[in-house]
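#struct-help
A.M.: can someone run this one for me? Single chain, 265 residues.
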Amino acid sequence: MRRWAIRRRGYIGCSDTARKSARVFLRIATMVALEERDPEMPVWGDRTWFSYRSADEHATHLLPYIKPDKSIQIAKSEAQKQGLTNIEFLQGDATNLTSISTSYPLFDISYSHQVLVHLSNPPSVLAGISALIKPGGIISTRDNHTFFTHPSSPANERDWELYRIWSRKRGAHPDAGFRNHVWMHESGIPWTRIEYGSAAWEAPYVDKKNFAKCHKKSFLPTYGVEPEEGDREWLGELEKFWDEWEKDPGSRFVGVDGWVIGFKE
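D.P.: on it. Structure tokens below:
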């Protein structure tokens, strides 16, 4: 699901400010879907449209910061296919960026894609990122806050509610896109130096089969939760719903993200 959303998006919510800035900044650090509590979750770093467009058109040095190792291997392969040589890949922890601060000069811009939604202390992470950015540089993030399925069903709505419940139990923030502008301010950026808004994305019609397949088993396996006996009927209804959704030529799935740009003074 994450890779389809990323490939069709513009520069941090199509902000004119960010688009213009990307043309002059040379050193860009990106974080892609870092997961604090589930290191095996795939991050699809190879599909990050912003990262590769920036490397190809603007940046002299791009530093994606992703994990696990498998994602780095995939990302390197994709970069080679595109003929990009100005990318260096790192594996690491978003909550501890010490290794970057001691090994690299300051960056011009940082872009975090669906990172804060997974982390327990987003303001602290943003403050750590800010320490890596030059004065006058940009700290930016984009995080989901809403999903819409059309048509929907009680089984589908229950699954999304379980996603929100189990995310919060793990210390994550399923509504991060509504709150990331506040976190940016709490990290030390003045309100007068913050821009924010929302941007929508849609699941691709041409690949509805794989999209539906990803959702048929519910979010329970994602969080390592064993279904209880009372869940059997609901899980059957959920699988039936996604089978019908896939076959329905009028069905749609839309996500809405909140984007934020902080300008470091």
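A.M.: thanks! The first helix runs from residue 2 to 7.
D.P.: also worth noting: Residues 2-263 form a domain with the Rossmann fold fold (CATH 3.40.50.150).
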